[in-house]
Write a structure and sequence with these properties.
Elements lengths: L1 H21 L4 H10 L2 H13 L17 E10 L5 E13 L5 E8 L4 E23 L3 E25 L5 E18 L6 H42 L7 H6 L14 H5 L1
Antiparallel strand pairs: 1-2, 2-4, 3-4, 4-5, 5-6
Length: about 270
């Protein structure tokens, strides 16, 4: 009986909407219905536009150039754990390959309001000019200055969130998981003895997945809260019917004074 009542109620609502549309009312709903058909295509076009701008800063999104992505004079202290006690200085970090990302899955659902994003980079190379002081595994004293190289194959993330429909839209992150298909590294000139150098490289390579997982577990709750807050601020004042229009106008996040989106053509 309850199922029948719900069905009748939905039919009545649909009937009222149709009447409203034919009488020129519910214009917002009509715009939403027109835009929703292309919303996922609009999202993918926006990401393609981002790709072509990644060698330049994107001022409105407060993003630096992402490919090549460069950081200078990054310091970090590693204390405790299996790796040892180390003072690490990256004089220069360069990451190449982010703009070659592939969109594996990207869908915005309205009937059950939610969003799914799955993006990966086929190959990412990170080169670091480093300086390192301390002890490794309480066995080796180290004072080195050289370079290190990281290679990742199929590195990406999957993001799933519910869209909470209320006075102010917000999201609730359900899943945020990174994945790496293959990982390799080489740290040059840690020790003068090449055999010792190879041994330490292998030990770090073996421990790296565990270190990355522990770091991710520690930072994940903080990152989720940050994402939810940024999205809540972005969607403040919008209703679910506004989302398709907002996505259709994502180009507003690009400043007209930013450089031309020519990054991929520039590389060819």
């Amino acid at each position: 009986m309850k199922l029948l009542q719900k069905f009748i109620f939905k039919i009545i609502i649909l009937f009222l909407i149709i009447i409203g549309i034919t009488e020129g009312k519910y214009s917002k709903f009509v715009t939403f219905a027109k835009n929703i058909r292309n919303v996922n295509t609009d999202l993918k076009n926006f990401l393609e536009d981002i790709r072509n701008r990644m060698c330049h800063p994107i001022s409105k999104l407060k993003l630096p150039p992402l490919d090549t992505f460069t950081i200078e004079n990054y310091q970090h202290n590693l204390t405790g754990g299996e790796l040892g006690n180390l003072d690490f200085l990256a004089k220069k970090i360069e990451a190449v390959g982010l703009s070659d990302f592939i969109v594996k899955d990207l869908h915005l659902y309205f009937l059950n309001p939610s969003i799914v994003i799955d993006i990966y980079v086929p190959k990412e190379i990170i080169n670091i000019d480093y300086k390192l002081n301390g002890t490794i595994a309480e066995l080796f004293q180290i004072n080195a200055e050289s370079d290190m190289n990281f290679k990742f194959e199929k590195i990406g993330f999957r993001f799933e969130a519910k869209i909470l429909v209320a006075k102010n839209l917000r999201i609730s992150v359900q899943k945020l998981e990174p994945y790496i298909n293959k990982f390799d590294l080489r740290i040059n000139n840690l020790f003068p003895d090449e055999e010792v150098n190879d041994f330490i490289n292998q030990m770090i390579k073996d421990l790296a997945p565990e270190i990355i997982i522990d770091y991710w577990k520690a930072k994940k709750p903080e990152l989720i809260l940050y994402i939810e807050k940024v999205v809540a601020d972005l969607l403040k004042g919008y209703s679910i019917l506004d989302i398709s229009r907002l996505i259709k106008n994502l180009k507003k996040f690009f400043d007209e004074n930013d450089p031309e989106p020519n990054c991929k053509s520039k590389r060819l």
